[in-house]
Give the backbone structure.
Amino acid sequence: MNTKTRRLIALDKKYAWHPFTQMQDWERDADTLVIERGQGSYLIDTEGRRYLDGVSSLWCNTHGHRVPEIDRAVRAQLKKIAHTTYLGLANEPASVLSRELIAVAPKGLSRVFYSDSGSEAVEIALKMAYQYWQLNGVKTKRSFLKLQNAYHGDTVGAVSVGGIQLFHDIFGPLLFKTFSAPAPYRYRENFLGSEDAYAKLCADRVETVLKKHQTGIAAIILEPLVQGAAGMLTQPKGFLRRVAALAKKYDTLLIVDEVATGFGRTGTMFACEQEGVRPDLMCVAKGLTAGYLPLAATLTTDRIYQAFLGEYHEFKTFFHGHTYTANPLACAAALANLRYFNEKRVLHRAQAQIKLLSQQLERFKKLEHVGEIRQCGLMVGIELVKNKFTRESFLAEEQRGARVCREARKHGILIRPLGDVIVLMPPFCFTENDIKKLCVGVFQALVSGLETGTFGFGGLHARRGVPAEKRMGASAPTLRRRASGSVRRSQRYPSPNRDRKE
């Protein structure tokens, strides 16, 4: 380890506090990486070692590092101005970006409200939805319908509509009341039947809550197609479309959180496009600037925008804003990102990447401790289990997901787990060889990282992917239910002689 690396690690461990990290483990870790630079698909540390960026630097780096076109755009904007307030003033990059975002967004969205992160984009959507109904005289619509296992960010409003008990429950006294419906998690429910039947069952459960509380629900909020931080939990085809129809039926707004799924991650620019859903509000962040600078946006319809218009003394204004709202540097990066998507035909090229990634993951299914592989576009979750047949989970203290990610470093790959779910989300710049190298390295890390033994480092360990039976209670009654001619089995340990339809 060189002198520079030792110095930076010492400074970090003396002064810094890392997110979603048990700092006691972090402080005693002897092999901390310090990333110094990036190039294309790779991150490079202060020791000169190169690592494939297997999770796009926490799902936001869409095209790799040091993209010349985006670099040039940021440098050009720096020659003009780095920041100016958006309160009472406009700026060129934000004005143009607003037009371009509306051009690529689902039809019906017509206004853009900027912020700095995905959590803030969600906070804004919640406040807009709440105030919309208040301005329209519907005073009873003051709460929200969320899905279990949901993750929408870490600010108080976003946590209120979250559903991962491990790191949301502790803040319970700070949160506002919400209504919750079960989320799709076919692997843990062991549903026997068609995908359409499961989509109907899951939507019916949402409707049960809506029907009971419709007068008090301002909006439904969900992550479309994939619940990312819950462990890449994919939804059955048709579920999103059914929920959108329910929102209209029960006169409630629909908020889609595309912070993780947006900007091509699921194979289309936005996930809700795949089911023809037109939300009332849409939250975007992460890939908006291709991982260059913090920027988020909440897009909404003219119907909602018009409700806030009035004379000054009526105080219909949306009283919300941030110092760095519509930062010109970030907006310039976002504009270059959108141009890059179009000029390089990124979404078209991504189809071959998605297919190759799927093919490479096939052999993972034979591994003893791989319970399920979930993929939607370039978003992948590999759920690890202690017993593949019974689907029993590893004990939390074993930190198996963290161990695998640690092993992956030995193969030149940086990934991060969600509990015992290994996440892969490569940037679009990955070549065929990059994808193969990623999968080979992760496969080898799974083989070596899941051998019997202890593993003491928790710095990589984020308990977002907690198995459903730990979140919702393993003692739930065992039942059989027929839904559209299909059977749902809630048994944790299915009969060894029964064939399962997955």
